[in-house]
Design goal:
- The protein is an alpha+beta fold.
- The protein has one domain (about 30-135): OB fold (Dihydrolipoamide Acetyltransferase, E2P) (Beta Barrel), CATH 2.40.50.
- The protein has helices at about 1-15, 35-40, 125-135, and strands at about 45-60, 60-75, 80-85, 100-110, 115.
Length: about 140
């Protein structure tokens, strides 16, 4: 009888024996100086249109390999097309992408190259303030 009560209590509390994952981002405190952010950010900030999305096996598991055409950029971009990796699941902080839709991307440099996730967007909480401070960005590089 006690095991049944214990199992019922666990079920009511939402505990299950399977693994779970959740994305949790730590918000940045205070006002962000976006010009300084762009000078020090170890990655890329750009607006791009998704050209290709592939599921690829990496040493970290299955990842999405997203190939973007750069529409405009602020830092970290050296070519007109760029590849960014993200987790396949939003519970692991991955971000989705829609083909032929322009999107604002913040990506850091990691073991796979440029990598992005939900938590990268804590850096730019206010898009209007970012654009006011950082300007409209530069056109894509010619190469």
């Amino acid at each position: 009888m006690k095991p049944l009560i214990f199992a019922t209590a666990l079920a009511l509390l939402g505990f299950t024996p399977r693994d779970s994952a959740a994305c949790s981002c730590v918000p940045l405190e205070g006002k962000i100086d976006y010009r300084e952010f762009l000078q020090k950010f170890p990655g890329a900030v750009f607006e791009g249109t998704l050209l290709r999305q592939e599921r690829v096996e990496t040493k970290f598991g299955i990842e999405l390999k997203l190939t973007y055409r750069v529409d405009r950029h602020w830092t970290g971009i050296t070519s007109a097309q760029v590849v960014v990796y993200t987790h396949t699941e939003s519970s692991m902080c991955g971000v989705g992408a829609e083909p032929k839709v322009s999107r604002f991307i913040i990506a850091t440099r990691g073991p796979l190259g440029l990598e992005t996730g939900i938590c990268h967007y804590v850096y730019v909480r206010d898009r209007k303030a970012f654009l006011a401070a950082a300007g409209e960005g530069s056109p894509p590089p010619k190469r």
